[in-house]
Write a structure and sequence with these properties.
Shape: globular
Strand content: under 5%
Number of strands: 0
Radius of gyration: 17 Å
Structural class: mainly alpha
Length: 96
């Protein structure tokens, strides 16, 4: 059920899965991503170091982000399953 909701959202907002869009920006702006993530981690560590909940939240977000970027082969501008427009633009034909 949630997968269908997510698919409806990404087909209307962005045209392909957000994880693919995020992975493309990671590969284009990797240094900026690293600087930003380290800065956010430093700020959270500086302001909220006493709260264990935040450490667990940051760890969970890092774990999820790791699964967005690693574990599958990177294909630039990878279209989603329901994204026939991007497949046509890439010359892959139409999914039926």
């Amino acid at each position: 059920m949630l997968e269908k909701l997510y698919q409806k959202l990404w087909t209307r907002l962005g045209g392909r899965p957000w994880t693919y869009i995020l992975r493309d920006t990671w590969h284009k702006l990797e240094g900026l991503w690293i600087i930003g993530l380290v800065a956010v981690g430093a700020l959270l560590g500086h302001w909220l170091w006493e709260l264990v909940f935040w450490f667990l939240l940051v760890f969970a977000l890092g774990y999820i982000a790791g699964h967005l970027f690693w574990g599958t082969r990177y294909i630039p501008y990878q279209p989603g399953d329901a994204d026939t427009g991007a497949r046509q633009a890439l010359g892959k034909g139409v999914v039926k």
